[in-house]
Amino acid sequence: MSKRDIVLTNVTVVQLLRQPCPVVRPPPSPEPKAEEPQPQAEPVKEEVKVQPQLSPPPQPKKITPVRELTWASMGEFGRIGRLVLRACMEKGVKVVAVNDPFIDPEYMVYMFKYDSTHGRYKGSVEHKNGRLVVDSHEIMVYQCKDPKEIPWKDVGCPYVVEATGVYLSLAATSAHISSGAQRVVICAPSPDAPMFVMGVNENDYNPDSMNIVSNASCTTNCLAPLAKVIHERFGIVEGLMTTVHSYTATQKTVDGPSKKAWRDGRGAHQNIIPASTGAASAVGKVIPELKGKLTGMAFRVPTPDVSVVDLTCRLAQAAPYSAIKEAIKAAAKGPMAGILAYTEDQVVSTDFISDTHSSIFDAKAGIALSDNFVKLIAWYDNEYGYSHRVVDLLRYMFSRNK
User: Fold this and answer.
1) Is 100 marked within a binding site?
2) φ, ψ dihedrals at 237, nearest 5°
3) Cβ–Cβ under 8 Å, residues 189 and 217
4) Exactly one of 88, 218, 222, 313 is catalytic; which is it?
5) Is the Cβ–Cβ distance between 245 and 299 less than 8 Å?
6) Contact present, 291 and 192 (Cβ < 8 Å)
7) Where does the entry annotate site (Activates thiol group during catalysis) (predicted)?
8) CB 211, CB 183: distance < 8 Å
9) Which of 14, 34, 268, 341 qualifies as a cystine partner to 93, CB 3.0-4.6 A?
């Protein structure tokens, strides 16, 4: 096994490949086009001349040698863990190990194959000899309750995705390092680990001193790119954020006790529930200039996926709403392509299920009270988009660690 390996806690292990997919697909349609026009009237000589010009099909043969970029392992095969594995397969990252003490390989196959929100997995998945096999790639399965017991060293996987939602601090997550991992990405905000949001501050990553990092929250991943564009272009004096957030697994299906706020224990499918969130203040960790200038709250609503951020802020530099739209559109097409998106369509939440962007600015939904006071709206798939950023952060770390 290669030395460049990654481990995902309670999730799966993935390997980054230069080629996005190991599946070989047939070349496009040059041959059928050449056969259709030439069979009846046109001379054969013209056919022979056209074929050499349309001969770039040999390129896939040159690309076929696959080079390993990263191997990853995951902890817990939960909601985010399974979607991180899907994102890994889409991006050519090979997962080599998964740890979940509560799910056996047979049940993992079922849970990965079928998803009520994102649909059935389009590839193949099965279990064989106690291992999970996805698209012919074998994935080791461990069922350790303590991260210190997971034999990451035996797998030879330096990268681990910590997706349990339990081990968040540097001290707690260092258990993965003790058991053989070299780098850990936490799929949640951390009280003390360096926090990164792709498209915003990943250049601050220091491979020499940062072996455990946080991918922040899904809401911070939506808000930070938007705030970065607005602040760098117009300046944000202060702002309030509200996220209208889909319910998650931490909520109750029916009324029950809550260890935090009492109303957090009310039925998620029946209520709009005000909740606290540190997503806005966390922007100050990835954009230091905005520290203390943003705060926010959340409404948990009865939808299974896709959330929306409302950023209401005061601008230092007066600008009409049209200028704000143009600035965001330019960023979405340029430096933040793939992270930030722009739309003027009459969209609703379900239109963004399985969208891989961190933030999709809704130009039609935003409003301005004046040229200095605006409300900006951005959608995000709080599951799928976030899972793709986890994989992007892994790949970025690997590129810097070489």
Assistant:
1) yes
2) -75, -50
3) yes
4) 218
5) yes
6) no
7) 245
8) yes
9) 14
**How remote is the C-alpha of 384 from its chain's centroid?**
6
The closest alpha carbon to 72, from 15, 6, 16, 12, belongs to 6
CA distances from 113 to 88, 249, 387 (A): 15, 19, 17
Q: E strands along 107-156, which residues?
A: 125-128, 131-134, 137-142
Q: At what angle do helices 218-233 and 384-401 cross, to 10 degrees?
A: 70
Please give the domain boundaries of the chain with CATH numbers for all domains. Answer: 9-20+65-193 (3.40.50.720), 30-63 (no CATH), 218-382 (3.30.360.10)
| Rounded Cα distance, 148 and 59, in Å | 46
pLDDT given at position 157: 78
**Can you tell me which residue has the tokens 């203040």?**
281
Is 218 noted as a catalytic residue in this protein? yes
Would the annotation count 248 as a binding residue? Answer: yes
Token duo for residue 99 = 């740890």
Q: What is the pLDDT of residue 70?
A: 63
| Mean pLDDT of successive 10-residue stretches along the chain, which has 402 residues | 42 36 36 42 39 34 36 86 96 91 96 98 96 96 94 88 95 95 96 98 97 98 99 99 97 95 97 97 98 98 99 99 99 98 99 99 98 99 98 95 78
N residues, the chain? 402
What pLDDT does residue 401 have? 86
| Whether 333 contacts 279, CB under 8 Å | no
Give me the helix-helix angle, 218-233 and 321-333, nearest 10°: 120
